[in-house]
Structures are given as structure tokens and as C-alpha cells.
């Protein structure tokens, strides 16, 4: 899976720490998501969707090898 969390975060001018605090996770979690080392839970993805005011599919995309 690919994501554009870093881009979305930059649009809102948020640091990893600020984003983490807004959605109730650690900065390390945000770092791992941005580096594609961690796939967030549905709840976390929905929190990001609400914060970014965009559908989840706008910032998370499946790769061909995810099928």
C-alpha cells in the first residue's frame, strides 16, 4: 500500500508530532505510516480522513501486489 500522508500533513502545515497528537498516536506511528512500514487500522484511517477532510482512498492506495 502507498500513501500520501506526508503530503497531506504538509498541506496542513503540521509536523509529525502535531499530527500524531491530533489523532491520538505517537510520532513514531506517523513516521512508520509515512514510510510504508505500518498499515493503520480502520479507525486510524478514518481519523486521518476526518482531519484531512478527504476520503481515505484519496491518501491510501493499493499496489498491484496488494491484490
Structure description:
The structure is a single chain. The longest helix is centred in the C-terminal third of the chain and has 11 residues, at 42-52. The chain is built from four helices and two strands. The protein is mainly alpha-helical and 67 residues long.
Q: Structural class, from secondary structure content? A: mainly alpha
- Stated plainly, the CATH topology is called 434 Repressor (Amino-terminal Domain)
* CATH top-level class: Mainly Alpha
Question: How many separate domains?
Answer: 1
- Tell me the strand order in the biggest sheet: 1-2
Shape: globular
Residues in β-strands, percent: 5-15%
Distance between the termini: 10 Å
Mean residue pLDDT: 97
For this structure, what is the CATH homologous superfamily? lambda repressor-like DNA-binding domains
Largest sheet: 2 strands, antiparallel
Q: With helices defined by DSSP (H or I, 4 residues minimum), what is the helix count?
A: 4
Percent range for helical residues? 40-55%
Protein name: Helix-turn-helix domain-containing protein
Domain HTH cro/C1-type: 5-59
GO molecular function: DNA binding
Pfam families: HTH_3
Task: Please outline the helices and strands.
Elements lengths: L1 E2 L1 H7 L4 H8 L3 H8 L7 H11 L7 E2 L6
Antiparallel strand pairs: 1-2
Helix pairs in contact: 2-3
